[in-house]
Amino acid sequence: MGCEQLFVGEFDQLADHYDETRGGESRGDEYAEGINAVLPLDDGPILEIGVGTGVVALGLIRRGRQVIGLDISAPMLLRAQKRLGSLVMQADALQMAVATVSVAHAVSVWVVHSVAGPARLFREVARVLRPCGLYAVSLAQRPAADDVVGQIIKEMSERVDARRGAVRPWGVTVEQVLEWAASAGFVGTAHKIAHQWSSAPRDELAAIACRSWPALRELDDAAIDEVTRPAVEALRSLPDADRLRRAVSDLVVFRRA
Does 226 map to a domain? Predict the structure, then answer.
């Protein structure tokens, strides 16, 4: 994650637990595979805006891509640096320390919904991209209807957003992103990407205990207990064994109109 975040401080606090509660390198590699498939095989570099701990960038590098990572969270970047070396920088995505017309393509995974000014982000991307460059934006994923654990977490997230009066709830629609991008002269094509992985209810219980969703950290202890208790009870009622998890995310590929 990165940029001028709504929850920069929370992401700083999450750095120690982020990989273990988000699937780590295997999950990042899965997202990198989908992104790699939609980007032309140019010389690069690719700029990942909101590089976080570097798991997606690492997957792209393993596929022969040249990647530069940008994030505003220093603790997250420290972990990215261990994976990517010196190819990371601390910067605000709404005012990037990147030269104009200097990158072949740009990538953001689970970032746009967390940025304070999405339309401004797209204007910055338009500035740094080369004329034929693409911007691949992966939106937050939605659990499959038969993913019991995923549905429990989705319902919890909805309660969290209602409790904190979210201006922009966790996750945004393709239509919203297309509108923000259009203000910067982009048009986009959306692709549905299927994901699957294994996890156990205990993994989600640990994530709740660590408050691994930044939005939870906006609430006091009493409110957190109120919005998470139904999820905790539902997760504890399930057999504590690994189960197949499935979800779908939207990958929107933008180019200049």
Answer: no
